[in-house]
């Protein structure tokens, strides 16, 4: 073939190959991104279920078995569930007010605090780690010479963090109920006025136990189950000087304006999880939850919640 003919043929061949390849790509693209398959996902609204955690990504992973179960067992053409988490009370309040979270699962203090700032309804109780309710204890070293909470004036007590129910809000409110004045301290080494009880955050219940045993703080507070577990063989070196009222371990709350067409199926699905093998597996994977149940109206449990709210209100006015 003459050189000029070859030079002419090359661009023609390239053009043909380009057109053939384009038609193949167009055909393949249509088969993968089928509009009829994607349309239901695009029209579904996302309902976000979450909590408050120092490590939000870790907590989202813990919630995933629950999310997977709900998406598999609630046949909704309009909604799908997704896990979320906020790093503070302020953030979760913003999330509710901005429509970034719809359902909150947490202990009573965060639920109550968020309820004041956002429009929430408490609907269920969660038996986290198999526990339906608990109370807090204030404890000291047995040989400390401290025999009552009144002896803590001029000394320091350690709480876990600022949004824990059993390791902060409940014992603090209960001490306030005893007419004791608590003041935040930056360090366990700070000097505390003789008429006040200083408090610091240990960031972990285990730290609280260690700090009390080492004499770094005079007292600590946490739920009675954690106390017995974390104190372990050294529990004989400690003594409890105060117990609080009993409150639910965890609660489930949702926006008051949540669509009833999804609220009822969601409630039914949670309440029936412990009736099936799939549900029991999902519950076990979700923080060793035993079950979800209704909060008994007018019974002792509801009275405990009301008492805690009263204590927290009094504590705020302090």
Q: Can you characterise this structure?
A:
The chain has 318 residues and is of the alpha/beta class. It has helices at residues 3-32, 35-43, 56-73, 89-97, 108-117, 165-177, 205-214, 224-231, 260-271, 277-285, 300-316; strands at residues 45-52, 79-86, 103-106, 120-126, 133-141, 156-159, 182-184, 197-201, 219-223, 238-248, 250-255, 292-293. Strands 2-1-3-11-4-12 form a 6-stranded mixed β-sheet, with helices on both faces. Strands 7-8-6-9-5-10 form a 6-stranded mixed β-sheet, with helices on both faces. Strand 1 (45-52), helix 3 (56-73) and strand 2 form a beta-alpha-beta unit. The radius of gyration is 28 Å and the shape is elongated.
Task: Detail the topology: elements first, then pairings.
Blueprint: H1 3-32, H2 35-43, E1 45-52, H3 56-73, E2 79-86, H4 89-97, E3 103-106, H5 108-117, E4 120-126, E5 133-141, E6 156-159, H6 165-177, E7 182-184, E8 197-201, H7 205-214, E9 219-223, H8 224-231, E10 238-248, E11 250-255, H9 260-271, H10 277-285, E12 292-293, H11 300-316
Parallel strand pairs: 1-2, 1-3, 6-8, 6-9, 7-8
Antiparallel strand pairs: 3-11, 4-11, 4-12, 5-9, 5-10
Helix pairs in contact: 3-10, 4-5, 6-11
CATH superfamily of the largest domain: Periplasmic binding protein-like II
Largest sheet properties: 6 strands, mixed
CA-CA gap between termini: 100 Å
What order do the strands of the largest sheet run in, or round the barrel if closed?
2-1-3-11-4-12
Report the uncertain regions: 2-40
What global shape is seen? elongated
SSE order in H/E notation?
Answer: HHEHEHEHEEEHEEHEHEEHHEH
Name the CATH class of the largest domain.
Answer: Alpha Beta
**Given the structure, what is the number of helices?**
11
Instruction: Bin the strand percentage.
Output: 15-25%
Question: Quick check: average pLDDT?
Answer: 85
Number of strands: 12
Q: Which assembly state applies to the chains in this document?
A: single chain
CATH architecture annotation name of the largest domain: 3-Layer(aba) Sandwich
CATH topology of the largest domain: D-Maltodextrin-Binding Protein, domain 2
């Amino acid at each position: 073939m003459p050189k000029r003919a070859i030079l002419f043929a090359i661009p023609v061949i390239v053009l043909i190959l380009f057109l053939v390849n384009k038609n193949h790509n167009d055909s393949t693209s249509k088969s993968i991104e089928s509009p009829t398959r994607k349309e239901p996902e695009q029209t579904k609204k996302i309902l976000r279920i979450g909590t408050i955690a120092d490590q939000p990504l870790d907590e989202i992973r813990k919630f995933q078995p629950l999310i997977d179960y709900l998406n598999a067992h609630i046949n909704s053409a309009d909604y799908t569930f997704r896990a979320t988490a906020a790093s503070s009370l302020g953030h979760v309040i913003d999330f509710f007010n901005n429509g970034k979270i719809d359902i909150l699962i947490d202990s009573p203090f965060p639920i109550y605090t968020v309820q004041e700032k956002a429009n929430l309804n408490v609907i269920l109780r969660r038996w986290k780690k198999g526990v339906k309710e608990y109370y807090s204890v204030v404890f000291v070293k047995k040989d400390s010479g401290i025999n009552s909470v009144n002896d803590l004036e001029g000394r320091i007590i350690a709480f876990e963090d600022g949004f824990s129910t059993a390791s902060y809000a409940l014992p603090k409110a209960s001490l306030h109920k005893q007419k004791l004045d608590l003041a935040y301290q930056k360090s366990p080494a700070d000097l505390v006025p003789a008429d006040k009880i200083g408090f610091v955050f240990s960031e972990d219940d285990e730290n609280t136990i260690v700090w009390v045993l080492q004499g770094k703080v005079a007292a600590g507070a946490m739920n009675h189950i954690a106390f017995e577990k974390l104190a372990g063989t050294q529990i004989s070196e400690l003594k409890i000087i105060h117990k609080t009222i009993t409150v639910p371990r965890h609660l489930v709350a949702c926006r008051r304006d949540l669509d009833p067409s999804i609220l009822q199926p969601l409630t039914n699905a949670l309440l029936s999880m412990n009736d099936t093998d799939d549900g029991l597996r999902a519950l076990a994977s979700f923080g060793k939850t035993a079950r979800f149940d209704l909060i008994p109206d007018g019974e002792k449990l509801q009275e405990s919640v009301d008492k805690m709210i009263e204590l927290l209100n009094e504590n705020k006015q302090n």
